[in-house]
Fold these 2 entries.
Entry 1:
Amino acid sequence: MINKKLFFFFISLILLILVGNSKSEITVQNVSPINTPIKKYTKASDGFCSFTFFFLNTNDNGTNIGTDILQPALGQYPTLIIKISQNQTSSLFNVTLSGVQATPQYTLQLSTLTSSKIQLDLSCIALDISTINPVLTDGFGNTFSGYNKGGFLKLEGLDTSIFYDSSIAVSCSISCTSSKVPNTNILSLTIYGFSTTTNIDSLTISISNSSNKKDLVINYPFGQYYDNISAIIYPESPYNSNVQLNSLNSRILFTFTSNNTLDNRLFLIKYGSSDVGLFYFPISSNFNSSTYLGFILSTQLNSGFEIQFYGINGNTFKSDFTSSTYTITKYWSYGATFPTSFSLNKTVNLDNALLNTITFERTSNDQYPLYLRFYSLVTSQNYYSPYGFLYGNNSGHTYSISVPTTIYNNFSAPSYIQIVYNGPKYITYNYSATFNVDKTKVPIIKSLEFINIRDIIFIMRLKIESFYGVKDLNNYLVSGTLNDGTFEIIVNSISAPNQQIKIYDSAFLFCLYSVGSFVNINPVIFYTSDRYYENQNPVSANDISNLTFLFNDLDITNKTIYNTMYFNCSTGTKDTKFLLYLNGDNVIFSIATYSLYPYIASSFSSFWNDTISLYQIDFIIPANTQSSNKYPFNLIINNAIQLSNKVLSESSQLRVISNNVDLKGPIFKRVEKTTNGWILEIQDEINGFRDGYIVIRGSVDNSFYNFTINPSNAVSGDKYYGEYHILLNITDPCISQDYTITDVLLVDNLGTNSSFSLTSYSIPYYYALNPFINYLNDYTINVISVLCATQNKDLTPPELLSFSLSRKDNFDVGSLNRNITITMQVEDLESGIRSDQSPFIYLSDVFINQIVFHSTYVSGNFTNAIYSCTIEIPVGFGYPYGIYLSVYGLINNYGQYRGYSTELLRNNPLFDYVILTNQTYTIDQPIISSYQRLSTKDSQLWLYGRGFKDVTSIKIRYVEDGAIINGTPTSLYSSALLISLVKRSYQPFYVTLFSSTKNSNEFLITPYFYPIPNYEPTPTNSPTTSPTESPSNSPTTSPTTSPTTSPTEPPTITPIPTNPPQKCIGNPECGGSSQGYCSSKGCVCYSPYIGIDCLSKIIIVPPPITNNSNPNVEIPTNNNNNNNNNNNNNNNNNNNNNSNGNNNENSNVDEITFKSLISIVSLRELDFDGKPILNYTFEKWILSEIDEFKNQYFTNIISGSNKVTNISVTIEWFNQTKSIQFANQILIMNPSTLKYTIEMTSYNFKSQLNTLQLVMSASLESSKTNDICSSKQFGNTSNGDDSNYLKVQVDNHSVYGRFIKRALIDDSPKSIENVLLDSTFNPIESSYQSQSFIGIEIPNFKQSAKIDPDFSVLLSASTEDNNSICSKSNSSLSGTKIAGIVIGCTAFVAVVLITTIYIIKKKKQNSKFINNMNNKLKNFK
């Protein structure tokens, strides 16, 4: 038997050991969000500082932390400590320290009950306002509201390393607001509240704190910049006394014009007795004036009022235009009454869902949309007719819908559904849910992570626990389940930091996190905007320097410009990303936003350019946007902070002019009603109409028409002014009713739109963009009345005979195949089925989400019709509670309609009504849903979707040539994937992803055009520091980390040569001041003069006749072209060219013909010594005519291993001056220039050291053979295009060829050489004909090569030098002069004989010209 004392001894010992081991060891750590300030300026309001931090107490041995607290040391400033969260081992405290007086150092000391301590050194600095120098960095520009003005105030002398958000108060002599630009000493300042009595002579801006104040007095930057304001009010007089507004969005509109610039506008427009300015914005501008558009927001006015326009006169506003008196007598309203109760309602339990059917009667015509309010939630989707219209017509009908809901009830009162009509009007249906929820089991975010994948695009990865299952995030689930899963959502760091995170579950419980909220304790997570750049070096706007542009002082009139920005950043690294937004101070909503249709947004990403050691952003300035000496842009730093161009120096401004600013959408210039529709003339004079749609609805039977329109289906005209016929196919029997245009959207070629909606609200900006602006005086312009001979005798609606689904059980909404086909049969034995209408099918989930599909007619007769609809269910839709169907919009010929709610479908055993989704939901199936905007210059592509984490390979299929390229992902996440593009394409291509067991959908990628940029330019306004210097803290070698967080790498650079300087020549030098000037590189000519001496002039000739056999082009000219080109060039040329005078004298009688021939001779493969080893000639070409000025020829050759190389030659004729880009070089095409673009696909070189040489020939022949000279020149151009030129001259005519020294080799700009081959070939050479051969050297390539020479015909001064070939006639008298001195009959015979011989000889020479050239070329093959 065990001794009791011994037993208790051991027990006591064990307890002692356990107690000893369980002794708490509490540690305290500061877990405050990054960038929580510890150094602050005193607050302007009271002169003190306050600080807020978060501290975590943790029991290191992992046992229960119990009731441990955190307490301040004695003598501390007032300290508020609140425990905000606790788990078993940790407690999180919020600590607020207030009333701290100014002191360079203050130590916050805290301790726990176990005497664990932590201290934090703080600084509270008194701000001396006298040391701050406020500077307005830019005159006040425009804000969205028009009459408000925005600018920036720089606080020079302020130490930005000290936190100062509430340390400086700003006030103005007029109303103003200010906000800090993060990480800078810059305040964004907006002034507003202008009235007709405002003194605008000067503005006082005051900065102050609790102890002192400093004023900045400036002159308003607006000035007197108008001559007169002219305005038009819509509707125009005499319709102003009876204004009737015909839609929710209709307003009284006005336009006014002034001669100001868009940068400095300030007008005040007021109406009635109100002294508040009206909203306005610019819509057009040219070099002489600007036009603005605005509106009166209110629709309730019913008494007379005037609209007054004020401009600036000195230091006051001056009334410059007053409208007629306007009276609104009618505005659009909802005429129908709405019931206050239901005629029938019913709730059915469907196991995992409730089906609530609501029915009521309506007795009047109304098409205003309804929406549902479920609990306290309002869906964002309105329910338009015919949804809910059960049977009848709009004069009286039954309305019935079935609303599926969850089984959960989280209210003590009954759950309810409200049908809302016209804002405050609604009726409520209460129903009893079957399962009461535990309201404490709200969703919990267990982890929150932000992953930067490119510029401002992040993956927000959340791990969520939810007892009832997360709602509406099905398609973002990447692992786990809706009850415990990980979700990935693609977010934008510009807008996301200001948004709440709100997670609902299936029981409508939710968790809500605002910016700055605490999220979780283990690990400690806060939801702050800093999380978007917590892993980056913080970059301040003050760190940006040397910002310049490749091109500046740009004219964007009717043309889009491709440009490049360069800048330095002292705190950046090669991986630091920036983003450029154009057009507008607000990057979230900008008036002048644009989208270069169809594939471009207004943001552009940066990359590090190793060659010049600067950051670089290639961007596009769209045609006809605003003119400005400070073209508005924002540079986004730290993924979220906006740096406006207004805070930058003058040298960093982008200067743009446009004589055709167009910021308004297309409008209806003429609207003419017919018996069955409308004739519409759509006008968009500058950008041109792109496309749009027009929706029409019947007033009695809810019939629906949607017309898609674009210039290709115009009856007449073009994109600038076209006529369109919108006609309804109304056949007997029919119902008499009105047809109303209820919705219109018209879009121009830059994405600017105008819109009209009868019943939908819009943001204020769109009120003014009304395509019916010219018809606001006509309340019924959008309505036609159709009268039918046969009266309505059928009161029975159509009947549904069958309604079936191709799939309905165990439907996996996460699979690749989510297609389902719905087929229905409809019958009406009395009046028959209306043949031009088809039913709508509605799919609903239990959260009042709904998608709508329009069925199509398959077959039928007068009384019967079969309709079908194939639908792709969105990923995750309806999981796991099912998808419920309803169908509405069955219409007969006498206006009776019919619909079937889910409950009615369910009650018929022959009809299908639900798609079951609760069995399987695949989350690892790769599905591509979208992609990063891709330009033709981009070499990497981001794809977005789901199920990407197991992808191992990629297939890219190119549409243009059928090529297939396989690859692997460069960077991989469940919801995003980066691929490198080996081949760039100007055409769409398809991408498919593969995992070990699955493949994705084949997704179409459509790149937008952007020329491949030159990564080695010298920026205009060269930076003050050497461009070879790297920013401080920038690595000297390329980053060694994986490119998963740095997807954009600079492309490989090939140096592009520049021509050496040349001596300016000519007599006078460079043709004189009217023809050119002398630069450091040689003569630079003014168009139309050309050449190294500017003494030649381009001849304007008709386009050459298309050669149907090959890409050889003949350009005929004659000496009469001299007259077409100002006769003798100009006086300078005549003074230096006596022979021109002789020729002109001779031309009064004899026409001299010149014929130029440009030919492609052969393609040769050269070895490393430049010796030809293979020669290919082109026997057969296929011609494809593109348009009247462009043709394309195709042929091919076969190299080693039967490799087929396709060769295309595009020949384009320019009839006017045009700027083009090739291989990242801007080239000017003069009128009457012939440009060759030669492209070839991959070629099988015999050696990697070998090259190709394309041989071209240029020749010129004159019909005159005596007293004439020919010559040839080959050399470097001097006008800055860094090209070679070839000039083949006969008499005073020349063929001038330009051969640029670069090509696109495997889609990258590469340097090439052009060589003269006359010593190798045997060119034609005589006094009246000349020929030369040029070899274009093409480097070894793998995929493609592209070259771009061009040719012109010139009028030049006739020359005779040592290199000329000349011929002299035996007589110094011309044939005409001889005829003039011979007399008598003998003389007459002599004249006839000489003339006959001359004509015969001339015709013989002309007929031999082409034959000689062709024979000569054949000898070279």
Entry 2:
Amino acid sequence: MNVPYQRVNGDAFAELGSVGSETLPVMKLETLNRCRGRVGTNVRSFRALKVVIGALLLVLVLSSAVVSKLTLISMTSRLGSALVDDEPGAAVSLYWQLLFVIMVPQCVTFVRTMLRGVCGKRTSTFPWPTFRALLVGIVSSTVEVIAMTCLVFLVLTHLPKISAIFIMNGIFMVQAVLDLFRVKCWELSGRGIVRCLHAVLENKISRIVGIGLQVGPILAAAGYIGWATKDVMLPVTLPLCLLVISAVWSTGCQRLGTKASARTRPEASAHNWSSDSTKLRSRYKSNFINSGIRIILYPVVSYIIFRYALTHNRVDPWCLHESCSLADTFKWPEKDMALFFAQILGSFLGYIFAWISCCMGLHRWGLAVPLFLCTPISVAICVGVMHYDKFELFPESLVHVNHVVSSTVFLLWLGQMLVVGFSIWKEKNVILAKDSSMFVSPHYDGVLLEQQILLNRKVEDVKKKPKKKEKKTVFVCSTMYREDSDEMEQMLSSIHNLACYYSEEKDKNQDPETCDHFESHVFFDGGVNGDSLTHFALQLVSLLEKSLSVDIKVCQRFKTPYGYRLSWLVENAMPFSIHLKDNTKIKNKKRWSQVMYMNYVLNHRIPSDTPALNGNSTFILTTDADIRFTAESAVVLLDMLDSDPQVGAVCARTHPQGSGLLYWYQVFDYAIGHWFQKAAEHVLGCVLCCPGCFSAFRCCALNSVLETYSTEVSNSKATEFLTKDMGEDRWLCTLLVEKGWRLEYCAVSENHTHCPEDFDTFYKQRRRWIPSTVANLSLLITQASEITRGNDTVSVLFVLFQAVLVFSTAISPATVILVIASGFASAYKVSDSAVIALIVLLLLLSIAYGLFCIYGKPQHQLDVAKFASLILVIFMGVVFAGNLKNMIYDAVTLIKDCSKYEACMNAVNGTFMFPLTPSTMYLTLFTLLFIIAGLVHFNEFSCLIHGVWYFLALPSGYLLLLIYSVANLDDRSWGTREASSAGGQGGGVGSFKKYLDLGLNKIVGRWTNKTPDVKENRPPDQSTGPTTQNGIALKVANNQVVDDAVRSQYEILVNEREFMLSDQVRQWLADVECPLEYVDLFERHGYFKLSFIAGMTAEDLKFIGIQRRGYILRLEKAAKDLPPYCIISELNCDENMNVGIWLQCLELHAYRRLFESAGYKTRADLENLKGLTEEDLQRMGIHMRAHLGRLKEGIGRLSYLHNSQFKLQQDVVQWLRNNGCVQYTQHFEREGYFNSRFIAGLKSKDFEAIGITERGLRLRLERAAKTLPAFVIQKGIPLDVGTWLESLEMQGYQELFAAAGYQTKGDLESLKGLKADDLKKLGILKKAHLQRLVEGIDRLTYATEGENKVHDTKTILQGVTVDSADVAECAFWESMLDVGQPLRPIEASFKSDAELKEALKALRNATLAVLLLINIMWIVLLYTLQFPELVKYNLPSKAFEALFLAVYALIILVQFGAMIAHRGVTLVHYLARVESTS
């Protein structure tokens, strides 16, 4: 059984461990497969793959190091032989080769450090060295140049090959001395054999032995050489060179030379990119200076040593005799060229492969083993080659030594292994570690490659106590609103997978100080209303038992200032909480939910003085509520955050979920967006958007931008609305980039999210995305100077690249038009005039759609876009078919006509003919690039299949969608997952057909001077019927002409001036500019007061004789603005009530005598009126349409039932009293709002219908109604009608329904057909009761399993004890909801929406104008540029096709190259996460 989650208070959480750069635990594939329910087959295959990669890296590093070493030995030995044989030309050539071998790594280091740490880089992250460090670097570089030059030209040229190879290992003596003071004596660790190895290798005695093995052989070899050659210089030079190089390359000297200037440390610590800012190193700028010094000194020192020490002034390498110029020295033989380039490439590739091995966690087999085996294998190869030296690579040396000396220098290799072997073997860095955490200095050496890498490898200080694994804390924060149950379930299942992983890791690591901590939080917008959970919140909780395997009953329910918090413990390990937001207490919408959880984590769960925050060990994993991910995908995001403290956020590869054509379109759209755009941003600079659907953020990075991210939108700045509220994820990332953080893209991590499957939702979603993306990119471009100075990863070229992308987006409509036109022209060989006509037509249609989007209704805009997209898809299909035909024709022609191909390649007779047309080359290039991209993303290759549909939908996605997005900039709605409204529904084919019919009717009306859409109400024989003096026929309800008696009655009433038009009606008709002939129509049909006109519909206006559509629409709109006449219900409650008073209430007291003559006079007669129909009233002589309608409504309002069960309850009276509206008590009782559950959720218009005329009171009551618990009607089939009425709190109507024949369970089926009008006929007239009963009838359906589960969950939660959150949490939330705080909700009436709306409209108009101007200019520019000389190259004279190819091909090629580079990083990351068998 799960234990309820006990919240960790602030003090306990403050005990989190400090930050470091330790690696995150590699997730075992067994754990992942168990979470996914898979077998362990993939485990063996992945391990085998990593073993193969490890073996390959071992071979590559070993072969590169061996080639580098042997080619160097060959050069030095042949130089010595050339000097002995007195061959100055060969000696000079070898001198230059060795000089380049020494200098090329320095040049590479110089360029690398300049680009990486100098050009455009801040001194905070790439500081300059201190003056002392600068002096150390200058001195060490100078002596290193002298020592390395002497070693190469004076020592290696004279020693035997084998001895020279062993001598290279003698540069570890100083490092051994330094290690002597860093290790403890006989410190034991481990167990068994490992313990013995620790005892032997990790102690001072082993270091003393290492020093002996380094110093002794060198001195012995030097002494023997001096004795054998009787030469003093070589015996002295040999140990001095090795000693100097050993000192310069030692860890201590390198750290002294890279100490950062103190002026930059405070600025560097602002980001907390290092756990100890005082240890910030000037790696790049120090090595930039030092490598520059070495580049200058190496030619000078080598010239001096070669001329004066080696050749004794016999050979000048810079100036030869007259028969041999300096240029001749670079005309090397093929053998020399091969050896030289082999040495250069071997050194460079050896360093690169060693770096890759460390990144992948294969440092043992990819670095330690091959570098230690390099010396013995080189010796073995050298021995073998000396016995069969066909190419004379190793001539005899100048100094001959015996085998005893060779065996003595062999001990140097053993000393090397003893000094650095064990530390290199056991050292392990984080996955995808930065170069600074793997190597002390960012350079390599071409002479002593493996020795320099071994010394340069950063190892932990063995004297210090080994640091424990740093504790990582991860908060999984999800935002939720109105997701479906399946979307919620897949998100919860993903959380459960993560909990399973965390539970296993927690079981393995019982130390709470080092075990990583995960917990999940869901922030639910509108999850609670007052004290009642909403339907969607209950739906989420009902899924917990199935998805998270938790017992809903075992829940802690806390009441908080923002609503409620529900907490569980998943898998007895990971806390899981649902934060239910009450929108009346805290701001809603996604951005404010993000601000909420950022403040909760940063300012409550992590106090500001906690080392965890300052040390970068706390992360927030953001997810959407419909996301699906694996535990491994969540963990690998942390790899990149952990590998580089400069990284502030990492996003993953997102895959869409769904079905249908739009899903297929988005599969390809998401694929190319990640393959090309995200990868290019990652490689070229910095990812600009880490979407909140699934990304990991560093807490201290969020802390640096939270204050700005929490700001409100300025009502006068429309661009702020686009950046902040419409694209909150991208704006958050823009702020992080401005603060100097790097954002990255991790393709190893994958997630799936639901995508829009219908056209309307897709367009609405992209309507938000496109403007917000362009707005944020524009912000990046306009602030380029500040951002490039503050962010090292954003360069001017990167900003320029983004500007090109923005411009390409702006001209995409013109591009689509030209692509269609040019494709049509090239496919079907139409004339230029036809192409121009097509361009003009498409441009005019685009402008027309833009205008329609400004003035048309939102749904009609989408309907037109659907229809236009369908037409354009068909047109693009025709164009695609034609171009495909041409491509096949060009390919066949190219294969047949080989001479044409030869002419293209050889440019015969000065002509250069392209074998393919531009359109063929363009499509071929892009097709090949996409195929290659699919191959390198082999598991996503199927996405290319959907590229065909993407191409066909190109006009819809890049022409119509852009116009729709820009034209709706003033639309502030979210567009997706919003509550549907009556006015916003419709659409689809039916809505478009209605709109099309409307347009056709307008056209027909103008041609025939009629209004076809208005049906005439005159019967065919109306012209012969009786009329009034103005010729207008009198009508009755059945559209028949009245007889003489009716006309007489009408004339009597008119003569009595009872129903003459009031002055208010005449003034109203004058205000709406109603023609004079229509005024009499209102009077003749009884509309003599404004109360009768209020709410008139178009049907009523047509009925009285108004046939012109324009006047009908105008009058209908004006009638809606009139205040409605409220007929008091339950008129018979007054004891003095009679028929006369009733008619007076209806403003029809002139009919009093008419009713009295018919026998309706007293109070008792009121009940008899209930049976009167419209025909009965006509027989009495009442025929005016307005009067008939008023009398029918008045009769309906006569309530003979005054049930005591519907008496106003005390809670309503108290609620009205609290809100200062107690005077309206009778109004609420009259309309049936007898308890508070009927009032919950009422709007201002509902209170107006009740009879509350004061706007202030209505708005006050509306706010108060939001806090009342809503009444939820459960779906299901009850036992009988009585039970059903009891569930609706309408049991007072049980006798009424029984009298009407609705009583048993079988009668429930008959209720399904009842409408509000039918219920009125039953005698149910109260508005609240009608609404409740109609809703109850709609809910008479069998409930699904999920709905039953929701109902059961509600019952369970009602039994859970509600506790108050602890004092600290309540105080925190109260402080966040204080006046002036960003999370405090703002009343809609206090917002200056009108100002913002006008600003958005102004921005929309300006953007549309600029967009139109740019596209027209682009079309004119490209199509009018003439280059006749291109015709002879088989290119068109008009250059727009060539320019298209150049511009867009350049963009895609840059992105393609970046994608290839990113795939390499992804492969390294992927393999690094696989647990090897070793």
